[in-house]
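> example.struct
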């Protein structure tokens, strides 16, 4: 059951809730507001971390798990790929239509949802092709 749910859908819901409720940043730059953490680097530079940076880091972690899950076969993984397409289309529509979603942070997240569903379908196709060639070779 849980294998069918694309993890980037969780990120999409978190982003939508925080953006639409105004819980993050200002109305003009919702995801560019800096966190209270500034890291002083050895080079003398100060790295300022924004809410968008943390969101993208969290989403990249979920994308990594999704790519690992893409290597599994079965009906649950096929449903996961189908739901990943839905997540990408929803992200695309939000980016184009809804105010507060047309920024670089959300665009990069949308690109991650695209990579998720493309990687899932490509890995599944290559695996199925390999399985068919092995099965075909045994029957001769």
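> example.seq
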């Amino acid at each position: 059951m849980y294998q069918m749910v694309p993890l980037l859908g969780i990120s999409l819901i978190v982003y939508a809730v925080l953006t639409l409720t105004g819980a993050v940043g200002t109305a003009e730059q919702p995801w560019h507001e800096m966190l209270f953490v500034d890291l002083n680097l050895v080079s003398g530079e100060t790295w300022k971390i924004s809410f968008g940076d943390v969101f993208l880091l969290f989403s990249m972690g979920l994308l990594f798990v999704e790519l690992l899950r893409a290597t599994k076969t079965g009906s649950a993984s096929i449903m996961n790929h189908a739901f990943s397409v839905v997540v990408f289309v929803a992200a695309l529509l939000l980016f184009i239509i809804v105010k507060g979603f047309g920024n670089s942070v959300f665009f990069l997240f949308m690109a991650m949802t695209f990579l998720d569903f493309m990687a899932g379908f490509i890995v599944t196709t290559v695996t199925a092709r390999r399985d068919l060639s092995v099965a075909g070779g045994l029957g001769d």
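> remarks
The chain has one domain: 2-139.
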